[in-house]
TrEMBL record:
CDD domains: CpcT. The lineage of its organism: Eukaryota, Viridiplantae, Streptophyta, Embryophyta, Tracheophyta. It comes from Gossypium barbadense. This is Chromophore lyase CRL, chloroplastic. GO terms for molecular function: lyase activity. The keyword Lyase applies.
Length: 273
């Protein structure tokens, strides 16, 4: 009897060990299945639109490209930021472009509307540009504190006529881009410098970098404006003395017109040529 009692007590730990092992294996399988589901979860149409809107936003410069090839490229500054959101969820961004030395004087101002492509089109994201009813009210919109910007409902009312639409697709695996696309064949009407139409290409890269290429053509297909060598490459400005210097120059030009301020502005410009 004693031996039988000892035998039973010895078998219990083994049974509990097997039970614990089974529980652990079950939890591992459940956790693995959950993780696999998360990893393989398909990106929705709106997810793509959000990624593109986020990548377009921010202050970017073509400084590196202008340094490599000053004969064909300028150092432009573009600044894009969220302005409002439409009822259907479309993101509306404010966009402006200026020469880096005069950011307070943008020569191009637009609203960009970012949303998923219609289901009947073979693309992922649609980026449309719109004119602004009163561009002076929006100059340096992204530089201002939020309480000094037009209200979201005012932004919606200031969206004017449509200008262009670019249709983006996800880039194939292995390419350096995330999304790429262009205007439809034939582009959009344009009359600047003898053009009859123009085309626009956009590539969204990693690290919030983008490439843009706008070109105008006449009736015979000759390019009459826009860079010919390749797209402009815009990269976010690094957190460096370049940014600090640029902002100090901008601030001093607004509050002090002494000889010292002009000397400091000249120093900033020469330092970053």
């Amino acid at each position: 009897m004693a031996k039988g009692s000892e035998s039973g007590s010895e078998s219990d730990p083994n049974g509990w060990s097997r039970a614990r092992g089974l529980v652990v294996k079950t939890l591992v399988l459940i956790g693995g299945a959950f993780l696999l589901k998360r990893l393989t979860k398909s990106t929705t149409r709106w997810d793509h639109a959000k990624i593109v809107a986020r990548s377009l936003s921010g202050e970017k410069f073509s400084r590196e490209q202008a340094s490599r090839d000053p004969d064909n490229y300028f150092n432009f500054r573009i600044f894009t930021c969220p302005a409002t959101e439409m009822v259907d969820g479309s993101k509306v961004l404010y966009f402006e472009q200026a020469f880096w030395r005069t950011p307070q004087k943008p020569f191009r101002q637009r609203f960009l509307m970012v949303k998923p492509c219609p289901k009947d089109l073979k693309c992922d994201v649609e980026v449309s540009s719109y004119a602004i009813r009163d561009v002076e009210d929006y100059k340096n919109f992204c530089d201002r504190p939020r309480d000094q910007r037009p209200l979201p409902e005012e932004v919606i009312g200031d969206i004017a006529e449509p200008l262009t639409t670019i249709y983006l697709n996800r880039c194939e695996r292995g390419k350096r881009c995330l999304y790429e696309g262009s205007t439809p064949p034939g582009g959009f009407p344009n009359s600047w410098n003898g053009a009859t139409h123009f085309t626009s290409e956009l590539m969204v890269l990693k690290n919030n970098e983008i490439c843009t290429w706008d070109r105008g053509y006449d009736d015979e297909g000759n390019q009459v404006w826009g860079v010919k060598e390749g797209p402009y490459e815009f990269k976010p400005a690094p957190a460096s003395s370049f940014n600090a210097c640029k902002r100090w120059c901008r601030l001093i030009s607004l509050v002090d017109h002494s000889i010292l301020s002009y000397m400091y502005k000249f120093y900033c410009q020469m330092k970053h040529l």
